[in-house]
Specification:
Length: 247
């Protein structure tokens, strides 16, 4: 247990001299954003995710089979928007390829803009979100989360992918001492799962208690704070800002 706590503490407290510097904490904040936004999209936009594309592919299969409550068009719009966001995020990280802090900043600014636009749509339109409003929200949120995923992929902080927990949980089990692995890094991996759980739980509570805009507004506030931090980090010349060397 102390090992798990040490791993969690090392993930929560920035090590500015480490290989990833403050990036783990930023990735945890983005994981909370994922939970908040997917809670909104799934509960209010009709069984569709804007961050979890595996879920949308599965939902598309359900819709094709005629299962009630699922929309092939909604899943398709989310997928297309996500890919468009990933292209945009990929462009941003390649423009700033020599500095990981700037990569993060550019993507955060873009994501914040798209989610802020979604908040405006919810406020102006009011609920329930149907028709063109529904698809506009799916598109805006999908693009924003696509940008986020492109950033997370480029920054490549171990075990902190911001949306994909399947591999994180698999690694925790497969790398454990029980499986004769090198060590599960359970502290970091549990923090990742817990961050998404917290975001999803808070988002669902807000929606179920009649505050549908609150999950998105909370996500925008988190992103704005992260962007402010990233603006400072973008000026750093610490070792963690240098691109990762890949084979």
């Amino acid at each position: 247990m102390p090992v798990v706590l040490r791993e969690a503490w090392a993930t929560l407290v920035p090590d500015m001299t480490g290989r990833h510097g403050p990036l783990p904490q930023m990735m945890l904040a983005l994981t909370v954003v994922t939970g908040l936004v997917d809670a909104f999209s799934y509960l209010l936009l009709g069984h569709v995710f804007v961050a979890n594309m595996t879920g949308n592919v599965v939902f598309g299969g359900f819709a094709l089979a005629g299962a009630p409550g699922f929309s092939l068009l909604a899943s398709a719009v989310a997928l297309v928007a996500f890919v468009a966001g990933a292209v945009s995020g990929g462009y941003a990280v390649h423009v700033a390829r020599t500095h990981r802090g700037r990569q993060l900043l550019y993507c955060l600014l873009a994501e914040t803009a798209f989610l802020a636009a979604a908040v405006v749509v919810t406020v102006v339109s009011g609920g329930p979100y149907t028709g063109a409003v529904r698809f506009t929200l799916i598109a805006l949120l999908g693009v924003g989360l696509g940008v986020q995923n492109a950033a997370a992929r480029a920054l490549a902080v171990p075990d902190l992918k911001t949306t994909v927990l399947t591999l994180t949980l698999t690694g925790m089990a497969a790398d454990s001492r029980i499986a004769r692995g090198p060590g599960s890094r359970a502290g970091r991996r549990l923090l990742s799962a817990g961050s998404m759980l917290a975001g999803a739980g808070c988002g669902a509570l807000a929606v179920l208690n009649g505050h549908p805009t609150l999950p998105l507004l909370s996500a925008v506030v988190l992103l704005a704070l992260a962007s402010a931090c990233a603006a400072s980090l973008a000026r750093s010349d610490a070792s963690w800002t240098r691109p990762l060397v890949t084979a």
